[in-house]
Amino acid sequence: MNLFITKTMRYLATAWAAVKELRRVKLWWVPMTIGIAILLELLLSNHDSQPATKYAYYRYLVFIALAFFLTLAVGAKFFPRWREKLLHISAFYTAVFLALNIYHLATQKFGLLPALFFPSPGRILEALVVDFRYLIVDCLGSSAKLLAWGYFTGAIAGFFTGIAVGFNKTAAYWVNPLTRIIGPIPPTAWIPIVLVAFPTTFSGGAFLIALAVWFPAAVMTGSGIANVPNAYFEVSSTLGASRWRQIFYVGIPAAMPSIFIGLFTGTCSSFITLMTAEMLGVKNGIGWYVNWQREMLSYANVYAGLIIIAITFYLLITLLFRLRDVVLVWQKGVIKW
Amino acid sequence: MVAPQTGAATIGAINIRGVKKTFTHQDGSIIEALSNVDLSVAAGEFITLIGPSGCGKSTLLRAIAGLHPVDAGELTLDGEPITGPAAERGLVFQDPLLFPWLNIHDNVAFGLKARHLYREHKAEVGQFLKLVGLETFGKSYPHQLSGGMQQRAALARALVNQPSVLLLDEPLGALDAFTRMNMQDEIIRIWQERKTTMIMVTHDVDEAVYLADRVVVMCPRPARIEEIISVKRERPRARSHPDFLQLRGKLLKILDFGGQEREPEYRI
């Protein structure tokens, strides 16, 4: 009995030492996780519910990832900045590759999920590679054109509506009720009318997106200007600023933080509207691609499309954040959001 | 242009005749903010307006600035009636109210740009920043500066327009005692250098006597000028000089803080 307790204690101490050791080698977590994934991929045989792919895309992915993170881990020995960065992202990417590995095992190796709706990572990658040109050039290109037209029309219209409402009482009297009635209607609810009223689905879609951006841009610009302390206008008038200069050099810069919130809200609802418009009416674009592939029951392509959408929207939002950091550099340390 | 002007000032004389101003409250009651105010300010004079809250001193200053029209009476600057805000009458508020989206240099340059004079007078921005001791802070944003520095920048922003009158609405009220005394000397130095007419609203009896050629004491209900006291002392003034203390006591008495019996002035 005594011997048993001593043994258990010793095992526990060893396990604890191993955990401590693991924390010490945090730099190698990601390569280790990917290494396990590669081992499992090589040792376990594929489940036959998943159709075979032409090339072993999943292997390529994990080997490239391994090479990448090994380089980082080795480089961290020499560059302190790499080390800092890697220590920071290590836990996150360990979780990412762990999750990917689990999904890979559940689909490709053990067939635990229905193969039709849950294609293995290899099959999604194959769809992405095979359709890449079509996805980027045709679908994404068409979506980008529609989004750009709608977004900029809506943002500019919203900006000027907001300025008019913020500075002019008559404009506020007539426009405010309109924004309050039209604004809260989800732009996609207009689809039945828009599809009939507009000559092309493109112009209809652009209009819907513009509407989605216009409302938050107008409201936030207007309220931003209305909330500019009157004292700023008094100061500028005693400095000899004309009414015009007070609008463009005092009112608008002061309202800029609020205007950016409007643009962010508008961006998010423009994405929603773009996807819905493409799924319901417009006959091309990335949203249409996803819906089309769903109808064809090729879910690997659906996931491929979703990945493209996620990356694109992530990049666009990041771009807007960068733009805000440049325009609102004066806010650093004043307001955070 | 920024070189100190020599000789007596010739512009910046303000004339106020029978000025009345009432405000209507939301509940319908009428507040008389100014009732029949007369005041003549000579060119280059330093005036301080003092009085309890509600005596109309800020209202009078804002009326001179042209920020709100008066109900009756006449306000003129060098004989010209005042109809609205203009660059010739600079105003500095209690809060610095620097534009947070502009750096200090661009804040000071605002008036020049607004009047389309920036291209020819660019160098003056730096000169006025130097005048208030902020020449190395042009690239800083307002929130990076202390309260006193912000107020100095606000002063430079008003001065760059070379106003003939500078109106100061408790500009030092939010500063701590030491910064405030430094700023008072700074204002006197700028005033002596620029010969600008100065009209300053203050709550501080000490400040009023320290700075002014004439102290204008205002009283509420009805809001009017109670008394005008000349301070005929050399600058820089000694705050502990008996004359200074005597004027201070006189002002406090008018403002009714000396009403009750106090301890005798001398015991030692």
**Portion of residues in helices of chain B?**
25-40%
The tally of structural domains of chain A comes to: 2
Q: Tell me roughly what share of residues is in helical segments of chain A.
A: over 70%
Count every helix of chain B, treating DSSP H or I runs of 4 or more residues as helices.
7
What profile does the largest beta sheet of chain A have? none
The number of strands of chain B is 10
The secondary-structure class of chain B comes to alpha/beta
User: What's the count of strands of chain A?
Assistant: 0
CATH class of one domain in chain B: Alpha Beta
Fold-level CATH name of one domain in chain B: Rossmann fold
* Level-2 CATH architecture of one domain in chain B: 3-Layer(aba) Sandwich
Structural class of chain A: mainly alpha
Average pLDDT metric of chain A: 91
- Describe the global form of chain B: globular
C-alpha termini separation of chain B = 54 Å
Oligomer category: heterodimer
Q: Which key terms come to mind for this protein?
A:
heterodimer, A: mainly alpha, MetI-like fold, 2 domains, 13 helices, 80% helix, B: 268 residues, alpha/beta, Rossmann fold, 6-stranded mixed beta sheet, 10 strands
